[in-house]
Amino acid sequence: MHMNFRPFVITIALVGFGTIRGLAKLSTADQAAVDAYRKTDYSGCTRFGTMSLVETYRAWVDFQRRFPGRYAAGAKKETDVVIEHLTVSMCACGDLVSVENELQRFLRTFPTSSARAKVAQRLQALRARRSDIRASCVSG
After folding, report:
1. Mean pLDDT lowest for which of 5-9, 45-49, 136-140?
2. Which one-letter DSSP state was computed for residue 133?
């Protein structure tokens, strides 16, 4: 699986100073957008448990709420990247407890999210030991 990571600098530069602070950390090339740690030039593991996936999703949802209709496609693309990590990523940088914690936090923080069912299903599979997520994995 290949996830395309990229900074979202143009939108941040256009929305104003107040929003720049909240979203700037999401846009630095050093962080490779969201929370994936590249282990090769085409793949990497996902850092679950730091809650930055949840916080990244929150930042973009807040952005969409604060600026309805402005840069909607780009903001949606960013939230979709987070949801992809939460529901599809098979390579966790850390242990499965960190994955469980991040998934639980998402469900508690965003009870009305359209992604709730997918995240809950993933959490249930993880708890039932039927998950496809590899812990402390080396991708590639």
Report:
1. 5-9
2. P
